[in-house]
């Protein structure tokens, strides 16, 4: 895996897992890959993955069942949505706003584009 | 796992390379040993393996004195040098002669690693440099040694092999072993390293873990013209400035840029040392 | 496995050595065999109309034993030229003693046995060939004909076998130590150092005797000074000889001392070897 963004690697891995939960590849109350499996797969240090899992545990997105492994929490999907929403509003939106200001794009223009996007990309269910 | 207590070393008495170094390495980590050419990286590795002996001070590796090179110490250590030289025999014969000396060697793992690294089952003299190196890497990883020392492991490896090497290293890390990698090609292995040792001019500038680094400093990019005084180090190009600065409590952590950290450590040694060395 | 000497490990090392260097040993063996055959062939051709010369054959024997033996011994640590191989050798989990034993077995036992074996074989074979193909000249009288029969040299008692073997052990041990001490051109360097120290010792020995004894003297001795003449050559005033018991003791002490110090030094050289 390539870690392109400027976020710390453990956060990028957390984002990756959140995305998988959001896409329901990792379903609620199901086991996610072990630290070792994920480390080998992503070619990163297991300690980094461990840090990711601790971070996600703090956010109550995943839980650790001793001796069994890590599982997506009961209401993991909601937690992930909240977390990613927060991340989006705090980190991604400011950049968008900055560019909107710079390029003098109005919110109306954005809304039109967004409606068009929604038309073409229906949420897969 | 490894303690350097006031260790001094030099190839001649008059010209010491390292003077009174203090260094401690713990198990369960992948150490990245970084330094410029001729900074003494290989020497530090050789000291740990008992290939060169300290002039002064106490060095303990795996609870043993490496100078003695006793079998019980040596079978816990596997050293993969930068240059490789092998006898002209079949790869499996070569391995078969090494195996009896390493009690924890795992033959299945070895064959798996060879396969993953795409090493042909032929005589070693028919192999290229990179292939021979991969044989050594497979041997080292399958030896299940507590201390695995890799001196420039990615030199001579092709692109797919570097990826496999990263997977192999990630798969063998555990609480009881310690992997030390010295490298110039920082980008080849930076996602694997979780402890950094930076050496320059016979001095250990920093020995710290990557978490501490990203908690204490930030690696950022700025496209503004002006240079801030708070920057520890910066590199300027037409795209702006890449800079390193101290992280404030409320700021988000950034991704560790090992190259930038390395350059910062070499050029602004004092600032980096102030941040990371509690003692001095 | 532990940190004490283990014969099993030593045997494993020996097997490893044979497997890894077996082909070069075979090559050396064939080269040696070829040289012996060639020199014997030349000898036969040269002695078509005369006796099969035992003196020349002894010379070949001595050269092969000592020159070949020392060359072989001084190449034992030739792989020190390669840093990677040196690292591998030094870090192989075995004790110094076990590693040294491989060199000992190869240079002190294997070479000697194989050399004696092939030399005896070739000598015997060549005597047979000589007797078969070279006709004894007609003018030789019957009683002297047996001089013209080629006989294996080990059957003649003129060869100083014991002395030669002792000399072999000492020179090859020095060559082995040289191989450990010098990474490049070990043979030449050891030989030069050996000659210099040899001359140096003789010089110092004589100098010391001269200093001890006020009269004009001339030391004499085969391997060490066992007697000296007092007075000038034309008018010697006396000859002083070492007491019999002393001579006896020195003559076994000296080789044993040289031999064991070579191997003790080799042990520590190997133990303290750094790269």
Task: Give a summary of the structure in a few sentences.
The complex is a heterotrimer of chains A (125), B (280) and C (275). Chain A is mainly α and 125 residues long.
Description of the molecule:
- The complex is a heterotrimer of chains A (125), B (280) and C (275).
- Chain A has helices at 9-22, 35-42, 46-58, 76-103, 107-120, and strands at 62-65, 69-72.
- With 125 residues, chain A is mostly helical.
- Chain A has two domains: 9-76, Arc Repressor Mutant, subunit A; 78-120, no CATH class.
- Chain A has a two-stranded antiparallel sheet with strand order 1-2.
- In chain A, a hairpin with a 3-residue loop joins strand 1 and strand 2 (69-72).
- Chain A is elongated, with a radius of gyration of 17 Å.
- Chain B is an alpha/beta fold and 280 residues long.
- Chain B has two domains: 2-201, P-loop containing nucleotide triphosphate hydrolases (Rossmann fold, 3-Layer(aba) Sandwich); 210-276, no CATH class.
- In chain B, the strands form three sheets. In chain B, strands 5-6-7-3-8-9 form a six-stranded mixed β-sheet, with helices on both faces. In chain B, strands 2-1-4 form a three-stranded antiparallel β-sheet, covered by helices on one side.
- In chain B, a hairpin with a 2-residue loop joins strand 8 and strand 9.
- The mean pLDDT of chain B is 90.
- By secondary structure, chain C is mainly alpha-helical.
- Chain C has a domain at 7-186.
- In chain C, 23% of the residues are buried.
- The chains are: A mainly alpha (125), B alpha/beta (280), C mainly alpha (275).
- Chains in contact: A-B, B-C.
- The B-C interface holds B 46, 49-53, 69-75, 77-79, 81, 83-89, 93-94, 97-98, 100-103 and C 1-3, 9, 12, 15-16, 19-21, 23, 79, 82-85, 87, 90-96, 271-272, 274-275.
- Tell me the radius of gyration of chain B: 20 Å
- Beta-strand portion of chain B reads 25-35%
* Overall strand count of chain B: 12
Please identify the top-level CATH class of the largest domain in chain B.
Answer: Alpha Beta
N-to-C series of helices and strands of chain B: EEEHEHEHHHEHEHEEHEEEHH
Q: Output the CATH topology of the largest domain in chain B.
A: Rossmann fold
Instruction: Sum up the overall morphology of chain B in one term.
Output: globular
Helical content of chain C (DSSP H or I, runs of 4+):
55-70%
Structural class from helices and strands of chain C?
A: mainly alpha
Q: Strand portion of chain C, in percent? A: under 5%
The count of strands of chain C amounts to 3
| Main β-sheet description of chain B | 6 strands, mixed
Spans of at least 5 consecutive residues with low confidence of chain C: none
Task: Characterize the overall form of chain C.
Answer: flat
Which whole number gives the mean pLDDT of chain C? 89
Task: Provide the spatial order of strands within the biggest beta sheet of chain C.
Answer: 1-2-3
How would a textbook summarize the main sheet of chain C?
3 strands, antiparallel
The end-to-end span of chain C amounts to 26 Å
CATH architecture of the largest domain in chain B: 3-Layer(aba) Sandwich
